[in-house]
Amino acid sequence: MSKRISIFGAGYVGSVSGGCLAKLGHSVVLVDIDKVKTDIINSGKSPIIEPGLDDLLSNGVSKGLIEATQSTEYAILNTDISFVCVGTPCTKHGCLDLSNIYAVVNQIAKAISKKKDYHVITIRSTVLPGTIDACIGIIEKETGKKNGVDFSFCSNPEFLREGTAIHDYFNPPYTLIGNNDEKSLEIMKSVYQDIEAPIYNTEIKIAEILKYINNSFHALKVAFGNEVGLIAKDLGIDSHKLIEIFIKDTKLNISPYYLKSGFAFGGSCLPKDLKALCYYAKAQNINIPVLSHVMASNNNHINAGIDMILSTNKKKIGIVGLSFKSGTDDLRESPMVLMAETLLGKGFDIRIYDKNVSLARLHGANKSFLEFHIPHISKLIVDTDKFDEMINFSEVIIVGNKEPDLVERIKKAVKEENKIVIDLVRIDPLLVTNNNYHGICW
Is 269 a catalytic residue? Predict the structure, then answer.
């Protein structure tokens, strides 16, 4: 079913969105304060350079599906959905400038006050979480109308690349809609019903921040690739051949693995190999600021966990999991060992449980690492049959390994025994920071 849609901002995102929506059969009113832009669009031409956009806009105008205006009131009164696509630049200090957003929303508020019908306002511009909450406040104050009843706000970020924007619009990885009510969700779904891509519905704040997360990750990948290229060139290696092989690993390298928020990395491989690569680069005077700061970032995360413990003002600590990850007895570079060492040094009384770590079986580098950091470890390790005893002893329980058989016991400690739990691995995906339960990243 076609919709009547107004788009505020006839720049890059607005013009592309308008042309594509018209191709899908929707009726589009493009709104811009610049008369030159509106005149160009009404003449059937594109105000920006983007392959294929001239044809889309020309076809849309000739079929009566696209028109452009400077009047916010006209656009609101003649449409049911509004997309806000104005620019959100950064100031010279890096602060996000939302003045364009708020200016448009104030204009929309004045127009909606004259409208009886329900209206959906969708922020497509890239904004930080909290922006839509502020916009809702602006319209409710101006009109006396209620969000979710008389109007609704949605977040629908765009993922368009210049030069391939039209292709990207019709072939997205998914369509993301952040909203708070079913009515606006169903309306937004109908806008995209002819695009073959999954539609994900989420809370508004997640939708608002996702574009920033995406682009920050893309920027990180570019920096990573460039730093690898500098090292490869110094070694006489063709970096493109190297990366071609690197990206063929879609099980780990290009995959969801290692991207879930949690605790610091450790083990016998990641810290060692990262340090060795950074040392080589430093010895060759190759500047790799991204890679050389990864260990510092990892250490900061360990310190964040320690700060959470310190903030409890409790001294009796039970640690569940000592190895660098569950299902292993590898203690080398384990962040849990480093955390335990720090707590001991600060005078905490600690007990440690790890079903995979047996002092009798430890040998070699594993044993040396543990004894170097925690010389009196044998007095702190708790046997399996003493786990409940450790829970009873502890005022604070630190969960460093995900052991399914212990989840219910730990949850009971929070709910029934008033123990404080600091979870570093998210033992239960439904748990979020609340009362005595604290997740390090959730």
Answer: yes
